[in-house]
Structures are given as structure tokens and as C-alpha cells.
Amino acid sequence: MKKQFTLAMVLITSLVANVSHAQIVAVQQANYTHKPIVEMTINNKKTWVLLDTGSDITILDIKSKKEFGFNTFEKDGYMVPGFGSENNRLRRATNVNLMFGDVRLRSAMFAFDLTTIAESIENRTGKRITAIIGTNLMRTYGFVIDMGNNSVVMYCKIKNSEVNKPYLLSLETQNEFN
Fold it and tell me: How many H helices and E strands in the chain?
């Protein structure tokens, strides 16, 4: 009996130690059609974003900075090739609270006029994007894009401070704005 009690106490102590030091695993899922465009929020406003595995960085539409309340600084930006055949100056974006479900996504963010890209996507999908999420952010937060099933899942270990709810393990399907 004493042996069983000791074994039970060791197991309970081990379990409590593991739980108290564990990180929360956040799981968010979204379904899409045509392109990996999912709903996120920027500064508490719902919007559509394109998950772009061909882009290294995250870019917000500079034309939406007033609507979404973020700031841009030209001095902190840099030149990048793409968006056609010329180099373009991106501006550093600040005051951006980007959320996927209940998880805040943190990364360096830049701003550029995405009008041409957003209009092209809107003409084909009916959804106007406000941002392009690059691989820097997707890799950090464990995004998995399943093209065969038209779904996106984000698996990430996060700190309590990055979650809006005390313990998050949500599986949420998003097709349209609510």
C-alpha cells in the first residue's frame, strides 16, 4: 500500500510540475475557397488577409492605415523587388494588433499600396484583402496550409499573455464574416 501511495504521489507531482510549466498550444483553423484568404483582425476590426508562401514579409495595405488605425514610417522601411518589375519602398508599420482568432500575431510589419493586388483578388474571390501574411510570420506561428482540403491550421505554443482567453484550445471554422 505504501508503495502504491508513493508511486501515486510521484505521478501527481510530475503531472503538476509539467502542467505548471507547460505552454498553451493554440489551434486555430480556417477554411477558404480559391486562395488561402482567411479572416483576421487588425486593431479589433475584421478583415481578409492573404497567406502568401511566396512572400517573406508581412505587408499591410497602406491605403487602409486610417481605417485600421496603424502608423507608417518611411525612414524605417526598405526597398524590395517585386510587385511587377521594379523595386518598391516599403514603410515600417507600427501600432498593429494582428489577431488570428484569439492569438495575437507578432512580427515586423510593413506597409505598401496593395490596391492593384487587392482589386485583382477581389474580382476573382469577392474578398478584398487588407494584408499579405508572409512566411516569416507563418513559420513563427506554425501555419499549415492544406491546399487539397482548402484549410489553414495554426499550431503554436504561446504564452498566456498572448491569448485573449485564459486557456485556449479552440478549433474554429471560418467561412464568412459573422
Answer: 4, 12
31: cell is 477554411
Give the number of residues written for the chain. Answer: 178
Yes or no: say if 66 and 155 are a contact pair by the CB < 8 Å rule: no
Q: Which residue has the cell 515600417?
A: 92
Task: Give the burial string for 120-136 (b: 16+ CB within 10 Å, else e).
Answer: ebeeebebbbbbbbbbe
Query: How much is the pTM?
Result: 0.74
Under 8 Å between Cβ of 41 and 99:
yes
The residue whose grid cell reads 504521489 is: 9
pLDDT tens digits, residue range 7-54? 444 344 444 334 434 456 667 888 888 899 999 999 999 999 999 999
